[in-house]
UniProtKB/TrEMBL annotation:
InterPro entries attached to this UniProt entry: Dimeric_a/b-barrel (IPR011008), Ergot_Alk_Oxidoreductase (IPR051604), NAD(P)-bd_dom (IPR016040), NAD(P)-bd_dom_sf (IPR036291)
UniProt organism field: Prauserella endophytica
Protein name, as recorded: NAD(P)-binding domain-containing protein
Domain NAD(P)-binding: 11-187
Length: 510
């Protein structure tokens, strides 16, 4: 293939297209990215973002000037006639089109005879491409791992995840692998006329997929079965006929666990596993906060940093988490979370370790270098406190919330026994144990005892600041029960509370 001139990437802000754009750019290929809103598109430096859509052939034509190859995808199945016209326009200008089709398309069956709307729409575009005379490569992916992102809402709220066909194994594709195949096809010879059936490396039931998300992020995730027909109708549209719904169900059950080696053959590296995909998407699946009640966390290190202003606060948080990308993950570190103080200056690092020995080993081996590297990115970080804890007891209401604020309430204690007695007494008064309705917007209270006996820490989750303020205003006034208990506990001194906004968590490599 002659050196590609410019590649036009449609769907460039989307799940696959974003990685096609990045992959081409990193190979030094000029990319013109098609998007309905260039101003909002967050694309790599050097990419030319142009307005348009595969549904607007006339609007797209000017952007084909000087373009040798096109990555074409179907954002929806709505206006296939427009996409057929787009194909004809592309064929007048470019030499090669790589089309993101679907594993549902069957060869030897005309578009009208394909089973289900998804297969029909993609087969129609494939036909249009073949008829146009342009060189083509069809990518026919099976299921995207990204489809599981819709579980995130339930996981983050601590609710059971509605799962379709929970025991039917399916292979799930990492979008980076689909994009890598597209990049090879767009930049090398030998891919014209190929129909690449793309799958993930191993069949996994949805129940096992949830277990893997749980293993990577330290959670036990409950699930409930969602009727398959109900889900299929949301994919195909409410107007889908019973036969179409049944057809799609059968095709999921038939083909979902097929495994091909196409990704390895084309890219030279094996398809990424679902576990690898989860490790890159923990934020979207489980949110920015850690699972406080994980059983394997025998030691918690809570430390605080102070910086000059909110911009540096965010920069320091990003640097602290991004730094792990280039560094060996310390043995025994399960999760490292960063939260931002609402004062605009403080950062809280909450890290869960298997045991204190693992922290000591990290302090000896790698901590100074890590701090130096972060200081090189953000100047003026003051490292204030670092206290070792173990989580002692938690009280979590049955009604789950998605926490948007964490409040750390601290007490000085004369000994660990004083701290434990106080927490035990407090928990007998807690709504979780009295049967009273928990305050709206209040989540878990997780009580930690400092390993040196000097502190009690309550890590309290709330939906937002207003929910915490309501608790302060209605339950923590002088004369209320809890302030009375605090005042009446010898050896205990309240140190006040600090409010934090969740920022992010990195986990061990799963
Ligand atoms: N999910 C699966 O399991 C699976 C399996 C096989 C095949 N596929 C196929 O893969 C394709 C989806 O790829 P993807 O997930 O990378 O896409 P995507 O992220 O859903 O969307 C890509 C881009 O399309 C643009 N877009 C969205 N709605 C649009 C509209 N109404 N009109 C014009 N542009 C619109 C958006 O870009 P802008 O906002 O920047 O314009 C969006 O970023 C579909 O054809 C699907 O059938 C999916």
């Amino acid at each position: 293939m002659n050196e590609p001139r410019t590649i036009l990437v449609s769907g460039a802000t989307g799940t696959v297209g974003r990685h096609v754009t990045a992959g081409l750019t990193s190979r030094g290929v000029r990319v013109r990215a098609l998007t309905r809103d260039p101003a909002a598109a967050d694309l790599p430096a050097g990419v030319e973002a142009v307005p348009g859509s595969p549904f607007d052939p006339a609007g797209l034509e000017p952007w084909l000037d000087g373009v040798s190859g096109v990555f074409l995808m179907l954002p929806r199945f709505a206006d296939i006639a427009a996409v057929r016209e787009t194909v004809r326009v592309i064929a007048r200008h470019a030499e090669h089109v790589v089309f993101l089709s679907s594993g549902a398309v069957r060869d030897g069956v005309p578009a009208t005879g394909q089973s289900g709307a998804i297969a029909r729409a993609h087969a129609e575009v494939e036909e249009a491409i073949r008829d146009s005379g342009i060189a083509w490569t069809f990518l026919r992916p099976y299921r995207f791992a990204a489809n599981t992102l819709h579980w995130g809402e339930a996981i983050r709220a601590g609710a059971p995840v509605p799962v379709v066909l929970p025991h039917v194994p399916v292979t799930l594709l990492d979008e980076r692998d689909i994009a890598a195949v597209a990049v090879h096809a767009l930049t090398e010879d030998g891919h014209a006329g190929a129909r690449y059936e793309l799958t993930g490396p191993e069949p996994l039931t949805p129940v096992r997929q949830l277990a893997i998300i749980g293993e990577v992020t330290g959670r036990r995730i409950a699930w409930t079965e969602r009727p398959a027909e109900d889900w299929i109708r949301t994919v195909l549209g409410r107007a889908a006929t019973d036969a179409e719904v049944a057809g799609m169900r059968a095709s999921i059950e038939d083909s979902a666990s097929s495994v091909t080696d196409t990704i390895t053959r084309v890219t030279g590296r094996p398809a990424r596993t679902f576990r690898e995909w989860v490790s890159e998407h923990t934020h979207e699946l489980t949110g920015p906060l850690p699972e406080l009640r994980r059983d394997d966390a025998g030691f918690v290190l809570a430390s605080t940093w102070r910086v000059a202003d909110p911009a540096r606060q965010r920069a320091a948080a990003a640097a602290a988490l991004d730094d792990w990308r280039d560094r060996p993950w310390p043995p025994g570190l399960l999760a490292h979370s960063v939260l931002l103080g609402t004062d605009g200056h403080t950062l809280l690092h909450y890290s869960q370790w298997t045991d204190s020995g693992a922290v000591e080993a990290f302090r000896r081996a790698g901590r100074t270098r890590r701090n130096d590297d972060i200081d090189a990115v953000v100047s003026g970080i003051e490292r204030l406190t670092a206290t070792g804890y173990r989580r002692y007891r938690s009280a979590v209401p049955d009604r789950p919330i998605e926490p948007g604020m964490v409040v750390l309430v601290s007490f000085a204690t004369e000994s660990a026994a004083v701290g434990a007695r106080f927490v035990d007494a407090l928990l007998t008064r807690h709504p979780v144990n009295t049967g009273e309705r928990p305050p709206d917007g209040m989540g878990g209270n997780h009580f930690h005892l400092a390993v040196d006996g000097s502190r009690v820490l309550n890590y309290a989750e709330f939906t937002d600041e207003a929910a915490h303020q309501r608790v302060v205003d209605t339950r923590l006034r002088a004369g209320d029960d809890v302030p009375g208990l605090i005042a009446g506990t010898p050896g205990l001194t309240p140190l006040g509370f600090e409010r934090f906004l969740p920022y992010g968590t990195r986990y061990g490599r799963g």
